[in-house]
């Protein structure tokens, strides 16, 4: 048994159909797209923490599922399949991002990068937390100097 078909407007302007499987009850029921693929799990929880832990998603459908779940916002860092992504107003961010006074580099898919990265012909070092380093840094036993912009000098 399914709920009536509903629609939500996606970021690309397309309407996405979805239904909730009610056989198991509302909370914990599967959420299906128009092709009857499971794209998430519905929850009745009120708090963002409960939704984050209760919703199982694949990364491609993340903005869609969050919009289905009572308008909860997709914001901040999300770990998806072992990689970190940063969302602002439901949108996955890419490129250089200043977050809480720290610079991070997110590749074209939005994945947070670490280690040595060549960006626009310049080398940068992003620590194990993804933060861009500046000043004098010892990396693998060798001292490197970085400008305030993060560029290796």
From TrEMBL:
Its EC number is 3.4.21.-. Cell wall-binding repeats lie at residues 93-112, 113-132. The keyword Repeat applies. Keywords: Hydrolase, Protease, Repeat, Serine protease, Signal. GO terms for biological process: proteolysis. Gene3D superfamilies: Cholin Binding, Trypsin-like serine proteases. It comes from the Bacteria. One of its GO terms (molecular function) is serine-type peptidase activity. Pfam families: Choline_bind_1 (PF01473), Choline_bind_3 (PF19127). Belongs to the peptidase S1B family. This is Serine protease. It comes from Streptococcus pneumoniae. The lineage of its organism: Bacteria, Bacillati, Bacillota, Bacilli, Lactobacillales.
């Amino acid at each position: 048994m399914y709920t009536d078909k509903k629609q939500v407007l996606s970021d690309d302007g397309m309407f996405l159909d979805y239904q909730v499987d009610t056989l198991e009850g509302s909370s914990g029921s599967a959420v299906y797209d128009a092709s009857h693929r499971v794209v998430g799990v519905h929850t009745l929880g009120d708090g963002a923490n409960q939704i984050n832990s209760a919703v199982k998603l694949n990364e491609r459908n993340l903005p869609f599922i969050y919009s289905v779940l009572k308008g909860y916002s997709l914001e901040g860092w999300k770990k998806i399949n072992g990689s970190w992504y940063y969302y602002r107003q439901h949108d996955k961010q890419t490129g250089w991002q200043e977050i809480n006074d720290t610079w991070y580099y997110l590749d074209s898919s939005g994945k947070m990068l670490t280690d040595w990265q060549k960006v626009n012909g310049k080398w940068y070092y992003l620590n194990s937390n993804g933060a861009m380093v500046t000043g004098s840094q010892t990396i693998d036993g060798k001292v490197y100097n970085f400008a305030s912009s993060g560029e290796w000098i």
